[in-house]
Specification:
binds magnesium ion; alpha/beta; GMP Synthetase, Chain A, domain 3; 11% strand; four-stranded mixed beta sheet; binds adenosine-5'-diphosphate; 4 domains; Helicase, Ruva Protein, domain 3; Rossmann fold
Length: 453
């Protein structure tokens, strides 16, 4: 029963994605989970009360209609709050994850705190700096250390899980420690919007504005959340201007650069781009390795070098996932008393590794390598054996082996029907040259990286 409902939910998700677009889908629907299905009642779990309210108000009927199209037996959709992860909190930084299920409407309102909680682990000390994030790090540190406004706003942007929130919390911690007299407010754009909508509902917008008046540093995380929400944008714009006029520091993050924020008013976009715009690039292998080392050290756990390298190489999507992977193997090892090895890692992380499997195809690799060595792509399949063609072909075979999940015979077939032993030979040859010839190794590294992204 439940698995059928799960399939139905997936179908509905597809419809929602088509109808509202990737961004809205990602923000609102993909965090929903199917909780239960019983006698025509479907329960979906949202991560926060805010998310639940928003979905119920804006998309509740839509979800029900779609569900009835797929399965007419369903008559009620209930969205409940279901926190599956421990919320980072100041007082209990390492609280054990609990599952809190709150029924629709039964949740008691807490005190109306405008701020979001800060995670005690997100400090500058715990932030590993590398090429991809050095600008953002330097800018964040500068803002945290200086008493005067440097650039307004500081706009941090980058993909999911690359350290934006970490840097913002680090700024907040630093100021709280070194300049305790300065008032810092950190909040997610989601929370900003929620508070604002509440204030509107309770006709209390004056008090809402007052909250920000005495602030020295205001940080709003993930502003892409307010794109398309016109009144909230308007309010944000005014708050923003009022603070800039009073020479207060603003720090904003988003998943895109100001000019790429879709559904954002032009004047707001341009305002956001006024100060310093610092982007965080996708991670490199070196940075991932550095983060793993720092993390293992902080957990006082010795992890074999090959396991670290394997993880840094395989889990390239984002740092959150990388940390999750490390935590999982450590937890597994502690629980079942098993030594951490490469084999064990592959086994424990099978599902994650599959999801991270590079989508690069053998054709991509052949094309890229051919371009790099200025030969014809068709030479990847040809019978020609001259060195200037044979070597790039071997490199492409090697890269196909390490970057795809294709088997050796499959790889051989794609290279003009060669035997799998030819592929083995190519891989060996490339590895040999790799260790002997520094320039060659660099070439391969460059190729690998351009194919990785
Ligand atoms: P974002 O806000 O960009 O989605 P986060 O700041 O939440 O990403 O980072 C995701 C996780 O990765 C956090 O646990 C954070 O501590 C960690 N992380 C990100 N960048 C670094 C870094 N450079 N050094 C150490 N940990 C990092
Ligand atoms: Mg974040």
């Amino acid at each position: 029963m439940f698995s059928t409902a799960q399939q139905e939910w997936e179908t509905i998700c597809q419809h929602l994605k088509n109808e509202y677009g990737e961004a809205t889908f990602k923000n609102w629907f993909s965090p929903l989970v199917l909780v239960s299905y019983n006698e025509g009642l479907v329960q979906l779990g949202a991560a926060t009360k805010f998310m639940r309210d928003w979905i119920v108000t804006n998309y509740g009927d839509k979800i029900r209609d779609l569900w009835q199209d797929v399965n007419p037996a369903v008559d009620t959709i209930e969205i409940i709050v279901k926190q599956t992860q421990s919320a980072p909190s100041l007082t209990k930084p390492q609280a054990t994850p609990t599952t809190i299920v709150v029924q629709n409407g039964n949740e008691t309102e807490g005190p109306n705190f405008v701020e979001s909680a800060l995670d005690s682990r997100f400090t500058f000390e715990n932030f590993v700096v590398g090429k991809p994030n050095e600008l953002a790090y330097a800018a964040a540190l500068r803002v945290a250390e200086s008493k005067t406004v440097q650039f307004n706003p500081l706009f941090l942007y980058g993909g999911v899980g690359l350290g934006k929130t970490h840097l913002m919390h680090a700024i907040a911690w630093h100021i709280k420690k070194c300049h305790p007299d300065r008032r810092v407010i950190y909040l997610s754009a989601e929370k900003f919007m929620y508070q604002f909508i509440r204030a509107l509902r309770f006709k209390d917008t004056v008090a809402f504005k007052e909250q920000f008046r005495s602030v020295d540093v205001l940080m709003i995380d993930d502003v892409q959340f307010i794109s398309g929400k016109d009144t909230t944008q308007e309010e944000f714009f005014h708050t923003f201007n009022a603070l800039v006029d009073r020479n207060r520091q603003l720090i904003v993050s988003a998943d895109k650069s100001p000019s790429d924020l879709q559904g954002m008013e032009e004047r707001l976009k341009s305002r956001l781009g006024w100060g310093l715009v610092a982007d965080i690039h996708p991670t490199t292998y070196e940075l991932r390795l550095g983060i793993l080392q720092a993390k293992a050290e902080s957990l006082h756990t010795a992890i074999p070098k090959d396991v670290m390298e394997f993880l840094a190489y395989k889990i390239a999507s984002n740092i959150r996932e990388l940390e999750g992977a490390l935590n999982r193997i450590i937890a597994h090892s502690t629980l079942v008393g098993r030594e951490i090895t490469l084999e064990m890692t592959q086994e424990v992380l099978r599902d994650l590794l599959k999801a991270n499997d590079r989508r690069v195809t053998i054709e991509d690799i052949q094309k890229r390598v051919a371009e790099y060595y200025s030969i014809k792509t068709s030479d990847m399949q040809s019978a020609r054996r001259s060195q200037n063609v044979a070597r790039p072909r071997q490199i492409a075979m090697y890269l196909s082996k390490i970057l795809t999940t294709r088997s050796l015979p499959e790889i051989g077939r794609k290279f003009g029907g060669r035997d799998h032993t030819t592929v083995i030979h190519a891989v060996k040859k490339v590895e040999e040259l790799f260790s002997q010839d520094k320039e060659f190794a660099e070439d391969i590294e460059i190729l690998r990286r351009t194919l990785e992204v």
